[in-house]
Amino acid sequence: MKKCVAAFALCLSLSPAGFAQERVDLSTLDAAMPGPRTQVLVLGTVHLSQGGPEKFDPAALQPVLQRLAAYKPDIITIEGLSGETCEVMRHRVAYKQAIEDYCPDVAPAQAALGIDTWAALDQVDATLKAWPSQPAPSQRRHLAALFLAAGDPSSAMVQWLQLPDAERHAGDGLDDALAQGLRKRESGRNENVQIAARLAARLGLQRVFPVDDHTGDNLDIDDEDAFGKAITEAWHGASAEALKSREHVDALHKSGDMLATYRAVNSPEVLRLAIASDFGQALAEPSPQRYGRQYVGGWETRNLRMAANVHATFREHPGARVLSVVGSSHKPWFDGLLEQMQGVDIVDAEQVLE
């Protein structure tokens, strides 16, 4: 047993049972690292399918896209489940609802190509490794079909949007229904397409990377009604300041001023109020089951796994410029988690959106 040779309080603080255990400081581990640092811009986004003007106009996002294009990301990630994750989840009854809510239907594309998810994923990798600098339209259509079969419709849109309008038709693995589906997505209210895929296409990137994860927040709750009631009642305790901030953001979104909306939802003060009124209120929820803590625990597990997935997209590309488009409530967690990674700097979203 370690001898205590100093004051009792100091001994207590350094003991295994103490409250202030000494830790290894990793903040300067990369101080002597050669080469450029990886830049990560986390763009908090509203969900375009929720709220906003009655008639959605993708052109309203052009001021946002112009500023993101000036940042020149090499890698773009989105809040979506990967085809690989969905395929694993399909083997578990516990994920039935998550699959229905978040996983795209891959059956039509797989039937058109005669392959399953795993073959589609492998063929996507092989195709991208041999991708020419000037791909033919037929190659883009075929890669779009592979992405659909692999459960990655947003990356399929990256290929589709780089086709001249006259080349956006069936063929090379895309049947009529698949081509019509991609055409419909062009005007859909989805930030994964209208921001991430359109930006990727504008910059000549070949894909986006889905990084979401719903295995960590798939809580096993015995009494779902009681859980929902407890969390809802906790949210009702939000401060007047938080409610006013939320109304301000909703009004901006409804007005169709998307640049002002994105500036607002990426503001540290707006984010602080939003997080306090949601997760802060949940943590103060008094039920004996600690429903609020379970809710926040699921949320944090999800963010941990998502941040790891973001890191995986640039681990082989040190010094890359990364854009992560994610629901604004995730942004504080993403910023904090990714900032801890070696050789990574977090880019100020407010400055990019100026």
Automatic annotation (TrEMBL):
Keywords from UniProt, A to Z, are: Signal
> By its UniProt entry, which InterPro entries does this protein fall under?
DUF5694
**Signal peptide start-end:** 1-20
What organism does the record attribute this protein to? Pseudoluteimonas lycopersici
- Name-wise, this protein is TraB/GumN family protein
What superkingdom heads the lineage? Bacteria
Note the Pfam families from the entry.
DUF5694
Q: Does the keyword Signal apply?
A: yes
